[in-house]
Amino acid sequence: MKTNIATAEIAQPYAEALMSIAQSKNQTEGFGEDVRSLLNLLSDSEQLRNFFGNPFIPPEDKKAVISRIFGEGANTYLRNFLMLLVDRRRILLLEDICQQYLALLRQIKQTVLAEVISAVPLSEAQQQAVKEKVIAMTNAREVELDTKIDRDIIGGVIIKVGSQVIDASLRGQLRRLSLRLTSA
Predict the structure, then answer these.
(1) What keywords appear on the UniProt entry (predicted)?
(2) Which of 4, 56, 78, 167 has its CA 20 to 30 A from that of 28?
(3) Domain locations in the chain as residue ranges
């Protein structure tokens, strides 16, 4: 399901409720790790996304899958929260709720999310250099990188932080050079 304003408005209270539970148990970061794992699982499995989004699958079956995914030793509060989402028929908003939770967690920790697009995977030193650049730009305490590979940018990186975009890619430089040449 595509994120839009309506789903964001519906997902926000659930994310805030999950954050409230995490804060009351003093486990905001632990919940964050579980939510990241859940998001990775959902992004890797279209079949699981379709299963949760299908209104014709009985809630008991969805709950059984959640129990199987989380097992007995997992975070019971998060598992119960997911069961509540099934009962309220909001499980199809799970990705949006998880994204909202992570945004709340970043806000609490004064962490900035930076989307980094590069032609090849970045080394640890390059990732650290990007983090330092973003910290200098935003005055944040920490930076969380969301790295993506796009071979079309040829080389360099594109860094997106909120509405700011730093295009240091070869494709971007070639585009700017082309614009200068055609306007001259």
Answers:
(1) ATP synthesis, CF(1), Hydrogen ion transport, Ion transport, Membrane, Thylakoid, Transport
(2) 4
(3) 5-107, 110-183
Which of the four CATH numbers 3.30.9.10, 1.10.520.20, 1.10.10.10, 3.40.50.1110 does domain 5-107 have?
1.10.520.20
H-helix or E-strand containing 160? strand 156-161
d(CA 174, CA 180): 10
What's the pTM? 0.77
Q: Which of 7-45 are b and which e, b meaning 16 or more Cβ less than 10 Å from the residue's Cβ?
A: beeebbebbeebbebbeeeebbeebbebbeebbeeeeee
**Closest to 40 in 3D by CA, of 146, 127, 121, 133:** 146
Please give the Cα distance from 93 to 97 (Å, whole number).
Answer: 6
